[in-house]
Amino acid sequence: MFAGSVSEEVLRQDFETLTVSKRLVRSVSQKLRKKNHRGEGGEEDKVRGVSLKCLTLYGRGGGCKVGADTGEELGDPSYRRRSSASEEGKVYKSICGIEDNNFDCFSYGVREKFWKKNSRKDLDLEESVRNSRMHIFLPDDILEMCLVRLPLTSLMNARLVCKKWRHLTTTPRFLQMRREGSCQKPWLFLFGAVKDGYCSGEIHALDVSQDQWHRISADILRGRFMFSVASMQDDIYIVGGCSSLTNFGRVDRSSFKTHKGVLVFSPLTKSWRKASSMKFARSMPILGISEVCSDFSVIQSHQNRHDRQFPRSRVGGVSDVYEDPHRLSLRRQYRNAFDENEPSLLPNRRSYKFIRQRSEQANMKGCKRFVLIAVGGLGSWDEPLNSGEIYDSLSNKWTEIQKLPIDFGVVCAGVVCNGMFYVCSENDKLAGYDIERGFWIGIQTSAFPPHVHEYYPKLVSCNGRLFLLSVSWCEGDGQIGRRNKAVRKLWELDLMYLTWTEVSVHPDAPMDWNPVFVADRNLIFGVEMFKIFGQVLDFFTVCDVSDVEMNWSHISRNHMAHELDASSCMTKTMAVLHL
């Protein structure tokens, strides 16, 4: 029995020895197979500062626990046997004659996983550092100062970078900063384009400083024609118009509907919104837009004035109402009074203080108040209208104003100048509407500038100066059998003495019967389109009234109209903005 137990003990020891030997052989073979790989990765491991020879498992006492008697701590009673077996395995030599005294703490596959994990972290760190170098993180206020100085085309491209830039460039604060900045350039927006007989609804925008055309899609205007536009600050107002009832989208006046809706387009944000509709449907109304003070009251100024028909007039520089139509002397007097704080010239100091507080609050909010006047045009039955209405941007409402007299004729042009809305008729009559007081004034000027009957005069205003463009004969006087030559001239009205003076001559022959002239600041822009030899041509010109000579120059020619139909010559309209 004793001999049997001894034999079992010997067999057990032999089995353990064989097991240890197999384990050691397998470990050595794995090391040989991966030796080359470790040799290549060793340099990178040293650079990264990661030791792959020992897996640093930290315990409560600190220090590396690999190779320590962790089995006792974990309550494993067989830890001594495993430790002794490991000590026994150290006496064996390498089967290839190469002795490796380093002990690898990693089991099979752990080293590769650990290396890949640390390598991925290092790559992520390097990528974040590289991205931080590429993207400069600026505060929002500095970023706004950079973006606000970009040209409009570059600003539109900058909005495509990220959502943050798009949000920053569309806030009211950013738009106010850009409006008050000095980097604005004039842009012309041409409406009413017709292609293949259909109203395309496209807006053609011209960057005057770069002489580049841009096309803006406006599906909301598709099928709408014969409307009028007016610009204020950063917005363009589209008022009235017609649309065909039988052939939608086509320029067809055999069966049409006249609109009284008003749309507002903002080029800076490329957004559309609807304003309050007019009380009467109109096509091709004459528009005038003006900024007013914050305490302006439309209801008080224009209430119960519908029955008055030119109760006042002004002839030869003398008015039976007041000699100064724009109250320049009165404004100068009050301005001096405000500067000197003289209470004798202030009838109600308390009311003035309240108005001043309201004005300051409006200026703090950054929203300016303005009115839009629509006069004349054609009604629902294609009849000429002599009525008018005024729109208040603060209340978003339209209010009727005093009608023009019947003998005044059909209104063909109008513009706001120094708080007065001037209109002229086909009968060569001139009238002015006092926006603050709410009534019309008949103006008798010196001899009205002569013009060819088919070419109606156009009114524009620049820096408080009133101009008129008319076509007249310079040779032949239009008589049959004689050589006839017509030119377009620019006239200026002296607002004090009411006399017309010729100041400039347009260089191009008046080929367009319906030209469009708009003005902004000290520039007058004009567009003429006509069809000749089967092709539609366009000419864009500009005149700087601040120049003593007031010469005209071409800014664009035959870049856009060759795609349009001849009917675009009658449906076109234009607005100018500084963006």
Structure description:
- It is a single chain.
- By secondary structure, the protein is an alpha+beta fold.
- The protein has 13 helices and 30 strands.
- The strands form eight sheets. It has a six-stranded mixed β-sheet, with no helix packed on it. It has a four-stranded antiparallel β-sheet with strand order 5-4-1-30, with no helix packed on it. It has a four-stranded antiparallel β-sheet with strand order 6-7-10-11, with no helix packed on it.
- Helix 1 packs across helix 4 (79-89).
- Mean pLDDT is 75; it is low at 42-106 and 317-366.
Q: Count the E strands.
A: 30
> What is the radius of gyration computed over CA atoms, rounded to a whole number of angstroms?
43 Å
The portion of residues assigned to helices is 25-40%
- Number of separate helices: 13
Shape by Cα distribution: elongated
Strand order, largest beta sheet: 14-13-21-20-19-18
Mean pLDDT: 75
Uncertain residue segments = 42-106, 317-366
**For the terminal residues, how far apart are their CA atoms?**
110 Å
Helix vs. strand class:
alpha+beta
